[in-house]
Automatic annotation (TrEMBL):
Identification of the protein by name: O-methyltransferase family protein
Coiled coil: none
GO biological process, one term: methylation
Region feature Disordered, mapped onto this chain: 281-302
Entry-linked InterPro entries: Cation-dep_OMT, SAM-dependent_MTases_sf, SAM_O-MeTrfase
Keywords, ordered alphabetically: Methyltransferase, S-adenosyl-L-methionine, Transferase
A molecular function GO annotation: S-adenosylmethionine-dependent methyltransferase activity
Pfam families: Methyltransf_3 (PF01596)
Length: 752
């Protein structure tokens, strides 16, 4: 049996080449020549070691053609389509995501085709594209295979975008590494690969291989009951045991404070299981009035999960972080909104998110692997040594890390290198800190200093990234630093420049952390490049509503009917934003206004109220029930002469409208479709016309995702606002409503 571990040790490529040569000379009669195309030979080694693992078709696909030619991109597209068709014909969705045990898989030929097409995609500089494919591969359980094929195509498109780089790949690498190790453990009974080897491998290798290995491996899935139980335990700890939790049918409630018998809760959080890839947690809130009882400040959080045939709910590990961020914010909000401040509530609220995030950190490191962390020894190329790392770990910002637990796990995983003198490292550490300052972290440092030479750039990503994340959140909570919605990505950008796949330089990290920890406030006049959404201030809703007159009772009654009686989600614009819409139409006197997303017509009514003589508003609302209620409301306010509500899909309807015919287009539909909306809407605007984008701050509900790997909503919004704000073809400005709007006025050819 080929020793696969040998293939992945330093210099494995050389080993691989030798192996390939040896193999080709050994099997000349087969007529196949194995070529190390995109390093697929590694897989071949893997395969040779395990004849049962992959079927012949799959192996054959990894061989170069006899004449050495490779299939080109055109063939690849066809191959993907073939694969999609083959899978559709089977009327089955793929099931290799989500902890499903390996099945006797008769779909390999189809995957082979997908694999081939992926083999042409670059890796290093197009990590995001890889990530897309990987996501698709892992999500196929819930996505139809068309989506997989589409993702593969998108991957190709994205691969040509030089900005396709990012931290998301690290999650991928970690998950991939763990998957490989898990697979290997299953096969060999022990894990002959180290995570670091795998991480490096993953970073070097092609998506083809990753996808191929995905066939044999599983991303960790978490049992939702287990997640909720752990969350409850942590919340209890944070809130001084005042949290009570119950899972009731379609929702899970946590109540804080109040009387001991639980009859008078002070505040609550409702966690809604979100089934399906596109569910929006805000929409979940529409499914119920306050589940925690009248008058109880309640926050709502969505938990993306999927349902097993036995009824069990499970979630991807990678969805956990977004959920915990969101939950942290929600709990913070619920605790501070409580009318009677809880015993520990106010002090501990700010820590909640950190505490919850630690859960993610632990599970990520424990269950997914993260590729581990390498502490470079002094003088080694990717770092200056122990002292710097020690410095990092001693920083206040990192003391929140529950490293002890992490250390235990790493201990189990890594202390398999008997030649290394841990005691020596321990002595170095303790000698340098006789006061035992931050002893937990020193212990961590001791344990984390395993003997893997820093010859594998990128291997230290895992923990490094996780530390950045938690530290960034901590700093923001303590007002020490403002950072944007994607702290790790931003930090990496700063620290690593444009090449995040290189090993991070610890000195740069230390400097950055120190500056951040030392900075009380940023100079307001200094533009903070790459940190565009910094804000440590809450939106002053109380102040604004105290200033504005009380809402018109007719509008309140309309809102109550739509939200309470009709159970539509309360995701309309806030009152001040509604006034802004009215101001804008009053000001611009537009002839044609288009709205994407009417819901029950709250924004529609305000836009229409400002319309002058002859002004028309076409509002698209794809949900027929909402559209019907919107129509009734428009009519209730006597605006039917100027408003038409259409149930057509806004994107396709806009594509048929006359170019340069609209004066104002208000975009407030599905957040994931924002890019499509803008593409369809922009040509419809006349010069001087404006796009108005709701939720542009990506800072209301969307901030909570903090740029997590599944931050599709926030990412979609950020793409749009960034593009518009920087475009030469518009003049754009952010308007301060609760969720923020971006006003982008189209410039004419004559405009300077
Ligand atoms: C945030 S709500 C709109 C709220 C509304 N503008 C307000 O402030 O009162 C988004 C709405 O967009 C609708 N929607 C989503 N995708 C759409 C599409 N492609 N075309 C038309 N409407 C869409 C949804 O059904 C939902 O009711």
């Amino acid at each position: 049996m080929t020793n696969v571990a040998a293939m992945t040790e330093p210099g494995y490529k050389r080993g691989l080449r030798n192996w390939v040569e040896e193999r080709n000379s050994r099997l000349p009669a087969s007529g196949e020549t194995l070529v190390d195309h995109n390093n697929t030979a590694y897989l071949m080694a893997f395969l040779e070691a395990n004849d049962d693992l992959f079927d012949h078709a799959f192996r054959a696909s990894l061989h170069g053609q006899a004449d050495g030619s490779q299939r080109g991109p055109a063939d690849s597209r066809v191959a993907v389509e073939e694969a999609a068709r083959a899978l559709r014909e089977e009327e089955r969705h793929c099931t290799f995501g989500g902890g499903v045990p390996p099945a006797e898989d008769d779909r390999l030929p189809a995957f082979v085709a997908v694999e081939r097409s992926l083999a042409h995609a670059p890796t290093r500089s197009h990590r995001k594209a890889v990530r897309t494919a990987w996501d698709a591969a892992l999500d196929v359980e819930s996505l139809a295979v068309q989506d997989l094929a589409l993702a593969v195509r998108n991957l190709r498109a994205e691969a040509s975008d030089p900005s396709c780089r990012g931290i998301a790949a690290d999650n991928f690498v970690g998950t991939f590494s763990a998957s490989v190790v898990n697979a290997m453990s299953r096969i060999f009974g022990t894990a002959p690969l180290s995570l670091v080897s795998c991480a490096e491998l993953a970073m070097e290798e092609t998506p083809a291989k990753m996808l191929a290995l995905a066939l044999q491996t599983r991303e960790p899935m978490l049992d939702v009951d287990r997640v909720l139980e752990e969350i409850r335990r942590r919340l209890e700890a944070v809130t001084g045991s005042t949290a009570r939790a119950s899972f009731a049918g379609d929702r899970w409630e946590v109540l804080f404070g109040g009387s001991a018998d639980g009859k008078v809760p002070s505040s609550g959080v409702v966690i809604w299981p979100l089934l399906g890839p596109n569910s929006d947690s805000r929409e979940a809130t529409g499914r119920a009035t306050s589940a925690t009882g009248p008058g109880v400040p309640t926050a709502h959080v969505g938990l993306r999960c999927s349902s097993r045939p036995d009824g069990r709910l499970v979630m991807h590990l990678r969805d956990l972080k977004a959920t915990l961020h969101e939950l942290g914010h929600a709990v913070h909000h619920a605790l501070t909104a409580s009318r009677e401040p809880l015993r520990h509530g106010l002090e501990s609220a700010g820590e909640t998110e950190i505490d919850l995030l630690s859960l993610w950190l632990e599970w990520t490191v424990f269950d997914a692997g993260w590729g581990g962390c390498v502490i470079p020894a002094a003088g080694e190329p990717s770092g200056k040594g122990l002292a710097e790392w020690q410095g990092i770990l001693q920083l206040e910002a990192l003391k929140e890390l529950p490293l002890r637990a992490l250390v235990m796990e790493l201990d189990r995983k890594w202390l398999m290198h008997p030649e290394f003198d841990y005691q020596d490292v321990w002595r170095q550490v303790t000698d340098s800190d006789p006061a035992g300052h931050a002893s937990t972290y020193l212990e961590a440092l001791h344990r984390l200093t395993w003997p893997i030479p820093a010859t594998r750039p990128g291997a230290e990503y895992g923990l490094f990234w996780a530390m950045s994340e938690v530290a960034g959140t901590w700093m923001q909570r303590h007002g020490l630093a403002s950072h944007d919605q994607t702290p790790p990505a931003a930090w990496f950008e700063r620290i690593l420049g444009k090449e995040p796949h290189h090993a991070p330089d610890p000195t740069a990290l230390i400097t950055f952390l120190e500056q951040a920890a030392g900075a009380t406030k940023q100079d307001p006049l200094t533009a903070d490049e790459g940190n565009p959404m910094s804000s440590t201030r809450e939106y002053p809703s109380d102040y604004i509503s105290a200033m504005l007159p009380a809402r018109d009772p007719e509008l309140t009654s309309m809102l109550r009917q739509a939200i309470v009686d009709e159970q539509l989600p309360p995701i309309q614009v806030d009152d001040n934003a509604a006034k802004l819409l009215e101001c804008l139409t009053l000001l611009a006197r537009p002839q044609l206004v288009i709205e994407i997303g009417a819901l029950f017509g709250y924004s529609t009514i305000h836009l229409a109220r400002g319309l002058g003589k002859g002004g028309q508003l076409i509002s698209f609302e794809i949900d027929p029930k909402s559209a019907e209620i919107a129509r009734e409301n428009v009519s209730r306010f006597g605006l039917d002469d100027r408003v038409r509500i259409s149930t057509e899909d806004a994107v396709s309807a806009l594509s048929r409208m006359a170019p340069e015919s609209a004066d104002l287009i208000f975009i407030d539909g599905a957040k994931t479709e924002y890019v499509e909306y803008v593409k369809a809407a922009f040509p419809l605007l006349r010069a001087g016309g404006a796009l108005l984008i709701d939720d542009a701050f990506a800072g209301g509900t969307y901030a909570v995702h903090e740029g997590g790997e599944d931050d599709r909503l926030g990412e979609s919004i950020r793409q749009v606002v960034r593009a518009l704000a920087r475009s030469q073809r518009v003049t754009a400005s952010f308007l301060g409503t609760e969720h923020g709007m971006l006003l982008a006025v189209k410039r004419g050819n004559d405009d300077e």
